[in-house]
Amino acid sequence: MEKEHGCRKIIWYGIPAYGHVYSNLYLVQYLSEHGFYVIYYSMEEFREVIESHGAKCCIYPIREGELDLTDGRRILKLYRLILQYTENMMPFLWEEAVREQPCGVIFDSLALWGRIIGGLFHVPCFSFYSIAAMGRAGGKGFFEYIRGFSGDFWCYAGEIPQSWKIRKRIAWKWKCKGLGMISVLMGQGDWNLMGYSRLFQPGGKGFGEKYRFLGPLAVYRQESRNNDFICKKGKVIYISLGTIFNQDKRLMGEIVRQFGRNRTDSGTVNEKVNGADERQSREYVVVMAWNGMNEGEQIRFPDNFIVRRFVNQKEVMKQACLFISAGGMNSIHEALYFGVPCLLCPQQGEQLLNARRFEKLGFGKILKDPEKLREEAEMAMGLKKMWDEEKRRKMTEICTEQMDEICRRM
Predict the structure, then answer these.
(1) Among 383, 334, 382, which Cα is nearest to 354's?
(2) Which stretches of 181-258 are assigned E, i.e. beta strand?
(3) Closest Cα partner for 30 from 224, 214, 226, 225?
(4) Cα 203 from chain centre
(5) CB 349 within 8 A of CB 145
(6) For the whole model, what pTM was predicted?
(7) What is the pLDDT of residues 156-210, one digit of tens each?
(8) 399 class by beta-carbon count within 10 Å (0-12 exposed, 13-18 middle, 19+ buried)
């Protein structure tokens, strides 16, 4: 990192999960190109992509895979884990920060340790949100989250006593306040950088000057890997649902049954048996990002399916007529950018919030009945004829003026 000398240093405390890292890489590169030396904390698996965007990647003092804050269904457990990681890592991270002497700190909204260090240094401190914000208790965002997470909230009540003990130790040792659950899960800095548009945020008009909506930065990040396939002519349905396939055999079965070409035992297409349905299914090529079934289970995919562990999503979106998604923030905004309607299958509270918001805005539809998957998919495709194209365009713009403001405040 030759440009370190003479450059102003920013320490960025990330969360090592794809959705969180990919949501902010564009801003990382922007700051690097505007004269800042960005030191980005993550894990080894993200080193290459972080450094390709101009930052120096430093590794958290924890074993690979141990820092896992991706399970958004278990909120009380997530709260306890953030407190626990903060207590364990703070001595090391504080010593490193003292040596680096940053002019500013940026931290993922879940990275409590970054908020504490920024406060101790008394330098400009920014929180970055890769998920929709809750805002104040009682606000619109608050009630949207309550709807999504209330179902199994108290199943993890056993986490509360341990969380309380860790919280007291952190408050005493690092002289910090704001360690309640909402404050920790929705960490705020001096300013809060939102990796999406104000239109997407529930109750977005009520968020004040401390919230800077930068737009969906993930759409504009670099993608270094290419697909090893070319989609055939015809309509393309893209499916990416994360780990849902390992947990929901029913949905996988319906996807194969309703979108796949029917085969006879000899492996040839059986048009006589399936008749009109078979001719209809020929309209679609299904591209699916999938990490495989559980051990010992296999699926034979129809010949109109292209299944890969890695898919360059942007390339497929250029040809897709529908995106079937769990509802991750970055993915649905990529679909929005390319004008692809979504059929959404949310699996946890944050995805459910995203899905409901997208449905309300007219860009997606939540799947109600897997047995009617094809019917609902084609209804979702029809949204494109009715949606507000001006709103879609505004929701995919990025705000460079706000990023310039970040540079000035540093």
Answers:
(1) 334
(2) 191-194, 211-213, 235-240
(3) 214
(4) 20
(5) yes
(6) 0.86
(7) 667 788 999 999 999 999 999 999 988 998 999 999 999 999 999 988 888 999 9
(8) middle
**In this structure, are residues 37 and 7 in contact, taking their beta carbons and an 8 Å threshold?**
yes
What's the full length of the chain, in residues? Answer: 410
- Asked if residue 80 lies in contact with residue 167, where contact means CB atoms within 8 angstroms, the answer is no
Q: Are 14 and 24 spatial neighbours (Cβ–Cβ below 8 Å)?
A: yes
Distance CA 126, CA 192 (A): 6
Per the CB < 8 A criterion, the answer to whether 264 and 353 are in contact is no
| Whole-number Å distance between alpha carbons of 363 and 276 | 29
Residues 26-78 pLDDT 10s? 999 999 999 999 999 999 999 999 999 999 999 999 876 666 665 555 778 88
E strand residue ranges, 317-394? 320-325, 342-344, 364-366
Give me the numbers of helices (H) and strands (E) for the chain, helices first please. Answer: 17, 13
Asked if 310 and 332 touch (Cβ cutoff 8 Å), the reply is: no
Here the tokens at position 84 are 């626990």
The answer for 261, left when phi > 0, alpha when psi is -120 to 50, beta otherwise, is beta
